[in-house]
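STRUCTURE:
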């Protein structure tokens, strides 16, 4: 980034901060703050260990320097501005989740595609937080990072004192790490009548059971019941390891019997007769991979992490770090809704061809002098593929 580009971007960010709606975190005066400034040099560094006693102080700082990135600590400290971590005196910390879209499995076709995958993964995580953990929707605060993904912030008293190990266990749970299928597909000893031996019966969690057990029951029954009505069912099932054509036909027949399916919903595996549980486990493993949430574990486990400030701008995109209600999250379109700059024309020098979809338009720029809307100019300059002006 050359000096004229840096000055243009800093000025644009400063103007934004004079009208910005900044969402301050709870007890913001107890937080450590950190900022990365725009620089024309290759090396950038974070200025941290800052503290603000009033909302006005923070706003003045943002307007004064127009930072590329603004962060605050998930932790609450007694002395947040102390220059050394051990001097701050940690008190508690919000529970944070980070879905980084470019770390998700599978191929990515475009920036828009990556962000859509990230939103779907975020909604998947939400099911765990509101369903399995019982948080109310108004206790889970969603944030678009302004760049590649989404965050969830939880400030409920029940989680503030959790240490790193406990937070790591939460990530293990939502990501299915350590899930033992032997405990899901188990056998229960049933006492016989007088004079007869007890027997072991195969059992399965009911659909109403909490946690992964009920989740797996609902997936398995929904998946195979739906498949039983598909004309390609045999072909699909024989694609699973250990399932031949005869076993596939038998499984479809069983799941076309509504009385057996109803028994399975109640956790009675004997409704499947002598059908081996290993076959069901093969199918369930696919379901687990689909249901598990892909979360950045180090972010959640770090009780002193710095997280992006909602309402600030992301210095590598120029887009807004956007706070969202759960209802807003479902309808949110980042490449439209997180854009804050205008449509006015700006002249830039493009260093290499680049394509992105913004405001519903496919923007493609070639190398050389171009005129593009301000929001696209800021984005391209922040991405490092263009410089301001024509020199």
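SEQUENCE:
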């Amino acid at each position: 980034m050359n000096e004229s580009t840096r000055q243009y971007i800093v000025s644009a960010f400063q103007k934004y901060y004079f009208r910005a709606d900044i969402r301050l975190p709870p007890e913001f005066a107890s937080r450590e703050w950190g900022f990365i400034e725009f620089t024309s040099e290759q090396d950038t560094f974070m200025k941290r260990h800052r503290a603000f006693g009033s909302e006005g102080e923070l706003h003045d700082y943002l307007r004064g320097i127009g930072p590329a990135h603004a962060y605050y600590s998930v932790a609450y400290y007694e002395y947040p501005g102390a220059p050394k971590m051990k001097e701050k005196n940690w008190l508690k910390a919000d529970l944070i989740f980070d879905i980084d879209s470019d770390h998700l499995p599978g191929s990515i076709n475009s920036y828009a595609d990556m962000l859509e995958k990230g939103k779907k993964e975020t909604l998947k995580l939400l099911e765990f937080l509101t369903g399995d953990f019982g948080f109310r929707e108004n206790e889970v605060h969603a944030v678009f990072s302004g760049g590649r993904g989404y965050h969830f912030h939880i400030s409920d008293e029940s989680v503030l004192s959790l240490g790193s190990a406990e937070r790591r266990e939460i990530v293990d749970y939502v990501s299915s790490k350590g899930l033992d299928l032997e405990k899901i597909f188990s056998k229960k000893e049933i006492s016989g009548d007088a004079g007869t031996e007890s027997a072991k019966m195969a059992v399965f969690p009911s659909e109403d059971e909490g946690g992964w057990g009920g989740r797996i029951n609902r997936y398995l029954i929904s998946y195979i019941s739906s498949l039983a009505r598909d004309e390609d069912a045999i072909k699909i099932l024989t694609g699973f390891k250990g399932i031949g054509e005869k076993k596939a036909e038998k499984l479809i027949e069983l799941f076309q019997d509504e009385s057996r399916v109803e028994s399975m919903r109640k956790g009675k595996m004997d409704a499947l007769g002598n059908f081996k549980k290993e076959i069901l486990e093969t199918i369930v493993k696919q379901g687990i991979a689909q249901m598990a949430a892909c979360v950045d574990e180090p972010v959640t486990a770090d009780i002193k992490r710095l997280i992006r400030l909602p309402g600030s701008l992301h210095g590598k995109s120029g887009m807004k770090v956007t706070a969202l209600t759960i209802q807003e999250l479902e309808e949110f379109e980042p490449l439209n809704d997180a854009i804050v700059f205008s449509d006015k024309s700006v002249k830039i020098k493009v260093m290499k061809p680049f394509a992105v979809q913004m405001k519903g338009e496919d923007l493609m720029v070639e190398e050389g002098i171009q005129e593009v809307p301000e929001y696209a100019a800021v984005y391209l300059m922040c991405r490092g593929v263009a410089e301001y002006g024509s020199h």
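REMARK: The radius of gyration is 26 Å.
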